[in-house]
Write a structure and sequence with these properties.
Shape: globular
Number of strands: 13
Strand content: 25-35%
Radius of gyration: 25 Å
Number of helices: 12
Helix content: 25-40%
Largest sheet: 9 strands, mixed
Order of helices and strands: HEEEHEEHHEHHHEEEHEEEHHHHE
Distance between the termini: 70 Å
Length: about 375
């Protein structure tokens, strides 16, 4: 009897699996990055897809080429634009390997929560994808003219990972952004990419100049739209306060000498408490400073003191810009209040911005010399 039941179960799986909706791999286009802009006609969606360049090569994929191309379509909605791209491709756009979602400057004033609606519903999307803005158009970012063998996405990955590693821009992780947009102030913290032309050398015979990507600023959101931008010092302060920095490098000047110092975050302890009638947000930051050179103990001590002061200054700049000036909750104070003082949040949840701007911030930094 058990054998018969097992046979029926296996047969059922085989039968019903053949009824599911599937798409053959050769009818799918693998998306590396998505760009969204807005113009008079609607939303222009651009997809950078894998496109083998095998001509003149012994293999289907020519490693000397970028093996990508960009297709664009305009629709009344982002969904319509995506479907327009699929019509041009003649098949389904597979989002499972997508690495970037870039929004052009024309969308700075639109609600990011709404813009991400389709990406939230599309279950193929990887939640670790990086979301960012372009200083101009998203299409320009995806279609950048690089040297042969490199794609815009590969270049974006290198530029972005380097900036994140050095604490000069945000990670822009999609899942984190979804959580930040769920805050009362609908905050956010995203990298901004820009395209620059390389200087043309005298002996270059290329008609068009080569280009490169860079990240010079980081956007912060309030109410889901771009409220303003942070410079590298302010970004680093946010990352220290949020405990999102691992290691970063700073240059220290002492007695006319310049020293490259690596700072490593050991731990960050945030807390909300009442001090009389005031609500205080405190951040206890512990870090280590490390120099490669053989230096005297006195120089190392002074470098450590400078590093400690530099971290504190960056934190103060971040608080001033994000909370006092833009009144946005990039530092996620709402989560701290919900955890430590839920009764206060319930009492003032309808006017949380007033609570946010009345909080007194304290940051203490303890920096030690690494062994």
């Amino acid at each position: 009897m058990k054998i018969k039941l097992l046979f029926v179960a296996i047969l059922s799986l085989l039968v019903f699996s053949g009824c599911s909706s599937t798409t053959e791999i050769d009818h799918r286009s693998i998306v590396h990055a998505v760009g969204v802009d807005k113009n008079e006609q609607g939303y222009e969606v651009s997809l950078q897809i894998f496109s083998p360049s095998g001509s003149g090569s012994d293999t289907p994929v020519d490693v000397s080429k970028s093996n990508t191309k960009v297709v664009s379509a305009v629709g009344e909605t982002i969904y319509d634009g995506m479907k327009g791209c699929e019509k041009l491709l003649g098949g389904e756009a597979f989002m499972g390997h997508n690495k970037f979602i870039i929004f052009g400057s024309s969308l700075y004033g639109e609600d990011m929560d709404r813009l991400l609606g389709w990406f939230r519903k599309e279950n193929e999307n990887y939640l670790g994808v990086t979301v960012g803005y372009s200083e101009s158009t998203a299409k320009e970012i995806l279609d950048i003219k690089l040297t042969d063998g490199a794609s815009a996405v590969e270049n974006m990955e290198l530029i972005h990972s380097y900036a994140v590693k050095n604490g000069t821009t945000a990670q822009g992780d999609l899942l984190v952004l979804f959580n930040d947009l769920a805050l009362t102030t609908k905050s956010g913290f995203l990298p901004v990419f820009s395209v620059k032309d390389k200087e043309k050398s005298d002996n270059s015979d290329k008609e068009e100049p080569e280009q490169y990507l860079e990240i010079k600023k980081t956007a912060i959101l309030k109410g889901g739209v771009v409220a303003g931008f942070l410079n590298s010092d302010e970004v680093m302060g946010v990352l220290w306060l949020n405990g999102e920095i691992d290691k970063c490098k700073v240059t220290v000047e002492i007695d006319g000498g310049f020293y490259d110092v690596e700072l490593e975050s050991k731990w960050v302890f945030p807390k909300i408490y009442k001090e009389g009638e005031k609500l205080v947000a405190s951040f206890d930051i512990n870090a280590e400073s490390r120099v490669v050179e053989e230096l005297s103990s006195d120089i190392k001590r002074r470098i450590c003191e400078y590093s400690q002061q530099k971290i504190l200054e960056n934190c103060q700049k971040a608080i001033k810009k994000t909370v006092e000036y833009y009144r946005t909750d990039v530092l996620r104070i709402e989560k701290l209040i919900k955890f430590y003082k839920p009764s206060i949040f319930r009492q003032y949840s309808d006017d949380f911005e007033r609570v946010l701007t009345s909080v007194e911030f304290k940051a203490e930094v303890n920096c030690k010399i690494a062994n």
